[in-house]
Amino acid sequence: MAAQVDRKEQFIATIVSTGLFERLHFLMGFEDTLMNFLLEPEAVHELLDYILAWRMRYVREMIDNLGPEAILFHDDWGAKDRLFMSADIWREFFKPRYAQLYAYVRGRGVLVLHHADSYLTPITGDMAEIGIQVWQGVLPSNDITGIQKNLGGKMLLMGGLDAGLIDRVDWKEDVVRGEVRRACNEYAPAGGFIPCITYGGAESIYPGVYETISDEIRLQSRLYF
């Protein structure tokens, strides 16, 4: 499939699902994972080192054999309104490991996108520091304008649309278009922003929503470019 892509016209992008945190709670359950950061930190560090080593090899094979221009990594670190753990716990267990992973990927000339449809405002500066170039899945519950001001373009923000408001069984076109206009009006002027639904793919739960979002984004883009 990669060989058939005309790279003059399209990027090749691949996805790496279930990040380091997600691997932990897939293996031991969500509550036990959070508890073990506090009760068994040495064991968790050891397990994360193992998972990271495996992930580094996986990414190396992907780049060697597919040569993608971009990789979308997936690891949700928070709920809608808060982190799953304290910012200090995240910095201890995940920041240095992701810095190592993303330094390697960027060193290979590959764009780093990170999906996390989460509230991550307290660690956005750290996210830019570890090499995330595009944060995909930015929920509007984050302080998006404040993040833009603080980062000064160091990390592109992709998202901003309230999926709970617009992607529903009783969705209405005027509501969907209004939400897209709101996001564009609030976040586009500061730059470094791409409006999109926060899921991570070109899709919506209910038919027609994604197409309406995309059409309104095209209309709004003409006002800015």
In a nutshell, what does this entry contain?
The chain is α/β, with parallel strands linked by helices and 225 residues long. It contains ten helices and six strands. α1 packs across α2, α3 packs parallel to α5 and α9 runs parallel beside α10.
Model description:
The protein is α/β, with parallel strands linked by helices and 225 residues long. Helix content is 51%, strand content 12%. The protein has helices at 20-28, 30-39, 41-66, 87-93, 95-107, 124-129, 144-151, 163-166, 173-187, 209-224, and strands at residues 13-16, 70-74, 111-115, 134-138, 156-160, 193-196. α1 (20-28) packs across α2. The longest helix has 26 residues, at 41-66. The protein starts with 12 loop residues before the first strand and ends with a helix. The model has no long low-confidence stretch (mean pLDDT 95).
Query: Percent of residues in beta strands?
Result: 5-15%
Low-confidence stretches: none
Count of β-strands: 6
Instruction: Give me the strand/helix succession.
Output: EHHHEHHEHEHEHHEH
Total number of helices: 10
Arrangement of strands in the largest sheet: 1-2-3-4-5-6
Using the alpha-carbon principal axes, give the shape. Answer: globular
Helix-strand category: alpha/beta
Q: Would you tell me the overall average pLDDT?
A: 95
